[in-house]
Design a protein that fits this description.
10 strands; alpha+beta; single chain; ATP Synthase, domain 1
Length: 138
């Protein structure tokens, strides 16, 4: 267990993942970062992207798409509080592509700065979700 870190991924709906793992790769706003046993304490905001969970060695055993949120690493392990999250395998490509088309249309139709910012964020999330479908390993 000394070479493992406890990882929990929580969304508003439920606890999605809780286990001891070898490594977690997390999409931070300033770039991806890996968490291993003994990692320094940190708190980071997340950008839309994929969390890669490695339970043994360098083999990715699970991939979970997050729309954003926060990650905290401390002596007890790593906890991710995600705004929304879903296993990449559960993402429907057709729905994801439709969500991107809708978000782009909303961005084009936006009248105010607030509406443009909200639509731009939805475009970013939809593009990241589709990109997640195209990657199978870290």
């Amino acid at each position: 267990m000394a070479d493992q870190v406890h990882f929990e991924l929580v969304s508003p709906e439920r606890l999605l993942f809780s286990a001891n793992v070898a490594e977690i790769v997390i999409p931070g706003v300033e770039g991806d970062f890996a968490v291993l046993a003994g990692h320094s304490n940190l708190i980071s905001t997340l950008r839309p992207g994929v969390i890669h969970i490695l339970e043994t060695g360098a083999q990715v055993t699970d991939r979970i798409f997050v729309e954003g949120g926060f990650a905290e690493v401390n002596a007890e392990g790593c906890t991710v509080l995600a705004e929304r999250a879903a296993r990449v395998a559960d993402i429907d490509r057709n729905k994801a592509e439709q969500a991107l088309a809708d978000a782009r249309e909303d961005l084009q139709d936006a009248k105010s700065e607030i509406d443009r910012a909200a639509a731009a964020q939805l475009v970013e999330i939809a593009e990241a979700r589709i990109a997640a479908l195209g990657t199978s390993t870290y």
